[in-house]
Amino acid sequence: MKVKPKKHLGQHFLKDKQIAENIVNLLSLHGGYTKVLEIGPGMGVLTDFLITRPDYETHLIDIDAESIVYLKKKYPQLQNRIIQGDFLRLNLDTLFDEPFAIIGNFPYNISSQILFNILDHKNKVPEVVCMLQREVAQRLASPPGNKEYGILSVLLQAYYTIEYKFTVHEGVFDPPPKVKSGVIRLLRNSVEKLDCDEKLFKQVVKQGFNNRRKTLRNALKPLHLPESMHTHPLLDKRAEQLSVADFIELTKLAKEA
């Protein structure tokens, strides 16, 4: 029995066992978790390696009913740890009462939404290992001053150290995607809460990158920053030139003003 990859779910099943093992080997137990949630296991190419590890308990979530039937037959030992559901609608706070890692070959069309959901539960998720479209993976790991650097780069790098690990070529998937993939690892840093208004921080970052070709003085006009801030040197720069620390400073100044 095989599961048919479904285009509307963005399914591209990895066929290369060595790459699957390399991805699973990136899990480092950072933060001391004992549970791992795999998103979109499909036919279980990562799961085959996850279940051999004694350090953690493997749980699976997949939205595809056909995959769920297949996985329950293939892994009878995981019966009560296989969830049929939509990760984007999952309340991660109620899933486990302890920290857990996330791993998966994320569907390209919803990978950013998956990461935003993880970000909302960052204090529950100390480590993420995932495969994404290569351009997205590079963007997330990109440092400031780089044209790839964007909104999600800043928001995630505020709470995670992100490493680009390796590139995966199109031919090792069924069906082959039209783009290359990249594998990244996110490790939670020690920042529990930003040293600024976190809601305003998000607004400043998003507004800055929404007009990324403009200087921040012009890009942030919709936020109605007070006159007293208009001469600040950070506002002479574009969003992609600012580090997380710079955005925090800008947020504090906006809040104080």
Automatic annotation (TrEMBL):
Annotated catalysed reactions: adenosine(1518)/adenosine(1519) in 16S rRNA + 4 S-adenosyl-L-methionine = N(6)-dimethyladenosine(1518)/N(6)-dimethyladenosine(1519) in 16S rRNA + 4 S-adenosyl-L-homocysteine + 4 H(+)
InterPro entries with a match to the protein in the record: KsgA/Erm (IPR001737), rRNA_Ade_diMease-like_C (IPR023165), rRNA_Ade_methylase_Trfase_N (IPR020598), rRNA_adenine_dimethylase (IPR011530), SAM-dependent_MTases_sf (IPR029063)
Domain Ribosomal RNA adenine methylase transferase N-terminal, chain residue ranges per copy: 19-190
Keyword flag Transferase: yes
Cellular localisation: Cytoplasm
Keyword field: Cytoplasm, Methyltransferase, RNA-binding, rRNA processing, S-adenosyl-L-methionine, Transferase
Binding site for S-adenosyl-L-methionine: H12, L14, G40, D62, D86, N105
Family (UniProt): Belongs to the class I-like SAM-binding methyltransferase superfamily. rRNA adenine N(6)-methyltransferase family. RsmA subfamily.
Protein name: Ribosomal RNA small subunit methyltransferase A
Gene expressing this chain: rsmA
